[in-house]
């Protein structure tokens, strides 16, 4: 809720906006009104404009606008409720009678004493018109019959006397049954027409707070140890060469640090070793989840050290070249010189080549290159690590000592990966193309392929790109024996080519092999499930999925572990997925329900069933809160059939239980504190209570409009006291920062997926 000072500040802002847009007559028309208040929606903008235009002139003066807004800002609950009723009463609208009392200086005069705008009642046709616009502005697509159901649900609830129309008193009485709505009516009009300003941050940076240091102690300790080791190596090398001059001291110190860091880069990409370490006590001490972030950090450190190292050597050569009898600077740099270092005195030449390769590698590793459809530039320039390590062995006489162990492990991992990839190709046996440009691949599962929920694999499809490997999270549970699922959103060049490839009317025949009996039976079951799933998701007739069976060759490399492996050792896990970020949690939620099914017990006499306590050495979970945030309605189609199944299984195996709670948010929908959305949200609530399912997704869980109030969400989690809370997030980096800050505030541990 906005304070009085903020309300006044907002009114001043409106005055300034009005002055910038109004013409010489100091009045604005409808288009100017939309611009002034940053209101884009046509229907509600016209309704507001008509109500504010008290003289019916077709334009609004600054006086009319400010008096109307002042009443809404400073008015009481009944004033705002009357205004809401007038917005919904769309027929016979006489604006000159609506805000007559605004001309009275005392703003405490109640709008309730005014004659109602329009006919003074709302009939079903008017309600249907308003709800249709609410749906359109919330980006919700529902069939016409669902709109009729919403209209009927709200109309029957509000029409207390069954007269065929809703009066103001009836609407007020119905709203009193929705405390949240009545509470939102006390929010000022500023938040109706323009979002409130962002909250002020603490005067202390987040990185200097005690909570931050406590929650990130392993990462900070690791960074401290890494920095200290580099300083120690630099100091030891500098002391050994102190007699050779300042430039040599700097060059040798940086060179020793480069020996360590270039070898450490390989350690940070030993994915199989790191996956194994996640299952050991070391995972509680070392920040293994951050290995890609540290790999990037060390890469920048290497480039900086290499630049200083090269610059110091050039400065030293320049100093030597000025002496009599010494070669010129160009000769030092471009030709082999005895005593300079490196194999055959080629340290200068190999150093310059190394510097060029490092610059190219880091330049093409930037997100703007990788995510702009030029992944192949990143891929091929990153393969230059082979040349870099070879040149480093030739360049630095001691580098091999640092590199021998991590280098052997790295080569071993690559050989194992290559052998695994080429031992036998797998096949994509089924594909679902979702309208939100998500490709759901069903791949036959190798016989000895074992993974944990939330793990990811590298996928190669020769038909798309022969040499490109891309990481994707496995969305199926490990308990699913026959197949693996991958859900791939089309964001870059390769993923778009994948989606387009499977859109072809006729896929190329790629040596189809006969399917196993179990897979043939599974296909038959899947055909039935697909037909059923199309009716589960309540969307407009235009949405659906393209489902086809195929036999496309592919290769996978993995599996590799992620932070989500910690979920089963948590006591209270909060899983937050934004968009396609639900993928790792899809596997985890399925695995949880598989474990429920295995532990289901029933009495042979009365057939009463229950589920034993799930907690054991592998799974300590007491409570799971699953939060899924999507931009619009169509993105819920990704996993809505899976979530429906999970809801049904929990209802059967844990009647009335709250072990798994789902929370759905749709950010494009008008929020509950938006006056325009009040009628729609009431109708959706009423229909959901009547049918026991949500009109947007078809789930029992009601989809909430707008973005989550993270303070309220985490406060509720903390109040439940179900054990130590750990938050797992997969989604955009911007949202990760917001959630991480709230986790720091509440003392929750935060884990984020890193690719």
Explain what this protein looks like in three dimensions:
With 755 residues, this protein is of the alpha/beta class. The chain folds into four domains: 140 residues, EF-hand (Recoverin, domain 1), CATH 1.10.238.10; 210 residues; 97 residues, Elongation Factor Tu (Ef-tu), domain 3, CATH 2.40.30.10; 141 residues, Nucleotide-binding domain of ferredoxin-NADP reductase (FNR) module (Rossmann fold, 3-Layer(aba) Sandwich), CATH 3.40.50.80. The protein is 50% helix and 12% strand. A six-stranded antiparallel sheet has the order 6-5-8-3-4-7, with helices on both faces. Helix 29 links the parallel strand 15 and strand 16. Helix 14 runs parallel beside helix 22. The chain is globular. The two termini are 39 Å apart.
What's the end-to-end separation, in Å?
39 Å
Adjacency order of strands in the biggest sheet: 6-5-8-3-4-7
Tell me the fraction of residues in β-strands, as a range: 5-15%
Number of helical regions:
29
Catalogue the unreliable spans: 93-117, 195-200, 527-544
Overall SS class: alpha/beta
Radius of gyration: 32 Å
How many domains is the backbone divided into? Answer: 4
GO biological process, one term: defense response
Catalytic activity: NADPH + 2 O2 = 2 superoxide + NADP(+) + H(+)
GO molecular function: calcium ion binding; superoxide-generating NAD(P)H oxidase activity
Domain EF-hand: 40-75, 146-181
